[in-house]
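Assess this one:
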Amino acid sequence: MRVVDRRPHRMARRRFLAGLASLPVAWVAWPASADTDVGVASALRRLFNDSIDHPVAIGRLYLAKEPAEASRQWLAGHVCGASWMSSDVPVHALADRVRALRHDDFCRGDLVEIDGWLLARSEARLFALAALVLPA
């Protein structure tokens, strides 16, 4: 005779979290238009003084570590704030916002290690946004 266990199946916490991590994350965001992408890309180019190779490379490394954050809309909203919806993102406002976010990240200890460097998470997200909106 076979005994059937009728207790609810208890999933181990690690197994549950691993399952969640394997699911694609869908960020709810406003649909980006071509004008918005151009505005963000233009602001990033001005912020980096057209030296985009290194920020893009760092951004790709960050996205490899955090693939769930590979959303232009979400990253732009986080990094640029409300101004990302504009086709003309003011670079001085972007620089001020990133500076404040970076300060807050360091105060909270919200750092990421990328290629041996410790970066504020918001800096890494800025570079990730560059990797997604700027051509290689």
